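Reviewers asked in the last cycle whether our approach scales beyond single polypeptides. To address this, we selected a multi-component target totalling 231 residues and predicted its structure end to end. The input consisted of the following lines:
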Amino acid sequence: AQSVTQLGSHVSVSEGALVLLRCNYSSSVPPYLFWYVQYPNQGLQLLLKYTSAATLVKGINGFEAEFKKSETSFHLTKPSAHMSDAAEYFCAVSAYGGSQGNLIFGKGTKLSVKP
Amino acid sequence: GAVVSQHPSWVICKSGTSVKIECRSLDFQATTMFWYRQFPKQSLMLMATSNEGSKATYEQGVEKDKFLINHASLTLSTLTVTSAHPEDSSFYICSAVAGATGETQYFGPGTRLLVL
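The resulting structure, written as structure tokens, was:
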């Protein structure tokens, strides 16, 4: 069965500092992996997705993530944090390893950005 | 990009009443829509998968008679919380899969339900 573990429920960085949000997955089939961002009282917005093509995936707002099969990881990074990046971030894996399957979400990581 | 809307964004109702939440794909056809529930400070939990023209598939532990789902067209799915109780208060989020790409779920902005 698929599962996702996000390490750290809360991450705090200074503006301009590196952002690193950790995600490890477990999947019995080749995974499709996603990162979503959620602002307060809003739905989820897709940041980026991995669908078995390039292992380094670039997304919106300067975020990127690298798929590492050997480490079963899909960590999200951004070189320089901006105040507007403060939000909740969710890592997800497709439940059935395919395209239209259900998504299994991690518990989320709240990112705070200090001025 | 693909846009999904939900209506209403906020609803407050009395215990025992029913509440209908609409999920619409505005610029694409969605053969599949998903309904999630999110409790405060927690992740999204899938409630059911809705396919146009067929009965919804509910996740284990979700009462299908309480959470009625109707996917009447390729752009509209509705979730009706019947005889709502305070424990049903939550943030309900729908998503839709664009038929052409099929790889990405596009999420609505969510509906916050408060049952008094």
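The radius of gyration of chain B is 13 Å. We regard this as preliminary and will revisit it once experimental data from Aim 1 are available.
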